[in-house]
Amino acid sequence: MSDQHAHFKAHLDEEAATLALGAALARALAPGLTIYLHGDLGAGKTALTRALLHAAGHVGTVKSPTYTLSEPYQVQLDGRAVGVIHFDLYRMGSAEEFLDAGFREDFNGDNICIVEWPEKAEGVLPPADIDLYLSVAGTGRDVELQASTALGTSCLQRLKFAPKL
Ligand SMILES: Nc1ncnc2c1ncn2[C@@H]1O[C@H](COP(=O)(O)OP(=O)(O)O)[C@@H](O)[C@H]1O
Ligand SMILES: [Mg+2]
């Protein structure tokens, strides 16, 4: 496996496993990471993000940004304040809406951006360091993570997650 193509696959047999993966990802984050979350409605994208934010130290609710399209948070990463922006672009009407909202400026190499429904902003959305795919499998979920940059690869190399077999 080349360094630029770290890849990870697991079965998440129940919601707790999705939450555990979110928490494990929180411990592997680095400033500037962009993660795309792919998967149908109800696949677990928001559940995973919620667990990630709580494990990263966010106290309080994590709402699904269905209508606001984005919701900013601040967490501490190695003693440094880092912004985490959670996007849900499902209801975004056009690429112009993304640009007019100033969303591109959020992808500034410092913030961590987590994007549900990246397909809706194709062409204007900055590229992902990691693509995460969730799909329904039996009563659980299958998950696949694919890094496509050095930053994403190092994150996946730090990821410590061992689902039950
Ligand atoms: N591994 C899993 N196995 C079974 N159910 C899960 C699993 N992970 C999450 N869920 C459930 O799936 C639903 C996911 O909802 P949500 O996170 O809002 O999905 P999305 O944001 O992808 O539309 C929740 O009801 C959650 O309890
Ligand atoms: Mg969602």
Features:
4 helices; alpha/beta; globular; 23% helix; 165 residues; Rossmann fold; single chain; binds adenosine-5'-diphosphate; 7 strands; binds magnesium ion
Describe this structure in words.
There is one protein chain. The mean pLDDT is 95. The two termini are 24 Å apart. The protein has 4 helices and 7 strands; from the N terminus they run βαβαββαβββα. With 165 residues, it is an alpha/beta fold. It has one domain: P-loop containing nucleotide triphosphate hydrolases (Rossmann fold), CATH 3.40.50.300. α1 crosses α2 (45-55). It is globular and about 45 Å long. 23% of the residues lie in helices and 30% in strands. The protein has a 7-stranded mixed β-sheet. GO terms for molecular function: ATP binding; metal ion binding. It is found in: Cytoplasm. This is tRNA threonylcarbamoyladenosine biosynthesis protein TsaE.
| CATH classification class | Alpha Beta
Question: What's the structural domain tally?
Answer: 1
Number of helices: 4
* CATH architecture level-2 label: 3-Layer(aba) Sandwich
Count the E strands: 7
CATH topology: Rossmann fold
Mean pLDDT: 95
Largest sheet, strands/sense/barrel = 7 strands, mixed
Hetero groups: adenosine-5'-diphosphate, magnesium ion
